[in-house]
Design a protein that fits this description.
Number of strands: 8
Distance between the termini: 36 Å
Radius of gyration: 20 Å
Mean pLDDT: 96
Helix content: 40-55%
Shape: globular
Largest sheet: 6 strands, parallel
Number of helices: 15
Strand order of the largest sheet: 1-8-5-4-2-3
Length: 392
């Protein structure tokens, strides 16, 4: 077990109609003017935006709005938000949406609170030393950004998708009403379930000897998501299943499932980020498409760990042969992904990259040969290329 820090300063307000408390929560911060940041028109169509504005007005909190966030949120809109906040003297950002909206809000917060180009933080040439306070009204259970220290942004110049991690961006509060996720299409719901699972699986696969308690939390969290994903396929309005998945999403990315694991592997996420940047695929679907290829490529580095995952999470029979059980666990996970209508290959994403594009993906993922990724196995640019190619 490694030494670790566990820091979760976000206040969670969970349950039905909890979004009605947003005005009071912002007023308690002492902030005077809010940027309401959101994605498509769905928050308008459902009446959620109106309810939020009504709550702000009741508490005497001023606001401006900025919509237009898309999956794989764009740097250009971040720049627009930074200028708007400076012009309107905004001192609080309220993200109303899922992970893309929250990540965009965090980037805007960095850009307002720090001098210079905000993209520097995502390129890792500088680190932020402040962020405007962020609040969240969550509408998609997936990214866990409502309780995490991370933000991922896509730069249209070169279609580079990069992340920035800093505790400065952690949300002051997160409003989690499972009812707000009931209008999501099946595909988005299942993409979210994969993302939640993968946030824990990334932390689970590690080269250090982890805490038994952390392992059990991680294994059970993944199992709960798998169980309730199947329920939502048949009954998408099931409140209890929505609630289980929403809470799992927050816990999967606030550090709890990685205590003592040295941070985890994260190669699958890095591989998917480049797919998302180049082809604009849904994040969860991209993760499902790439994971099996990654797992088969690195399994020989630690078959015992993969076998534990197979037995405890996928409920595979313990044959006593770690490698055989590990491979069975990988197959069973892909079977599960397919059962919830998620892709298990790049081709099933509906894209057909050329060999030149696979090379380009590997170049970008390796930061043009300047880094390796992963912990279970340190992956070079050539390793990355082979994983992409094997996943086609």
């Amino acid at each position: 077990m490694e030494n670790f820090e566990y820091y979760t300063p976000t206040q969670v307000v969970f349950g039905k109609k909890s979004e009605e408390q947003v005005g009071g929560l912002i007023k308690e911060t002492g902030c005077k003017k809010v940027l309401i940041h959101y994605g498509s028109g769905s928050v308008k169509k459902t009446g959620l935006l109106d309810r939020i504005i009504s709550s702000l007005k009741e508490e005497g909190v001023s606001y401006v709005t900025l919509g237009g966030v898309v999956p794989n949120p764009r740097l250009s809109l971040v720049y627009e938000g930074i200028e708007l906040c400076k012009k309107e003297k905004v001192d609080f950002i309220l993200a109303v949406g899922g992970g893309s909206v929250i990540d965009s809000a965090k980037a805007i917060g960095y850009g307002v609170a720090n001098e210079g180009d905000v993209w520097d933080f995502y390129e890792k040439t500088r680190t932020p030393n402040a962020c405007l306070p962020i609040g969240v009204v969550l509408t998609i259970s997936a990214a866990g950004s409502e309780m995490s220290n991370s933000s991922v942004i896509t730069n249209e110049k070169g279609w580079l998708k990069r992340g920035c991690n800093s505790n400065y961006c952690r949300a002051k509060f997160a409003i989690l009403n499972p009812e707000l996720t009931m209008t999501l299409p099946e595909y988005q719901t299942m993409c979210g379930c994969v993302d939640i699972m993968m946030h824990t699986m990334e932390r689970y696969f590690t080269k250090v000897t982890p805490m038994e308690l952390t392992d059990k939390i991680a294994e059970d969290l993944i199992g709960v998501v798998m169980k309730n994903a199947k329920i939502l396929l048949e009954d998408p309005k099931n409140y209890e299943a929505r609630a289980e998945i929403m809470w799992a999403g927050s816990l999967s990315h606030n550090g709890l499932t990685g205590c003592g694991t040295e941070g985890g592997d994260w190669a699958s996420h890095q591989l998917e980020h480049e797919l998302g940047g180049m082809f604009d695929v849904a994040h969860g679907a991209g993760l499902a498409a790439i994971w099996g290829s990654w797992a088969r490529y690195v399994v020989d580095e630690d078959p015992k760990r993969f076998a534990q995952f197979a037995r405890n999470v996928m409920k595979c029979t313990n044959t006593g042969d770690d490698k055989a059980d590990a491979m069975e666990g990988i197959r069973e996970m892909e079977t599960f992904y397919a059962s919830i209508h998620m892709p298990i290959s790049i081709g099933e994403l509906g894209i057909e990259p050329t060999q030149a594009q696979y090379r380009e993906l590997a170049e970008k993922c390796s930061f043009f040969g300047k880094r390796t990724i992963g912990v279970v196995k340190k992956l070079t640019k050539e390793d990355i290329y082979q994983i992409y190619k094997n996943a086609q």
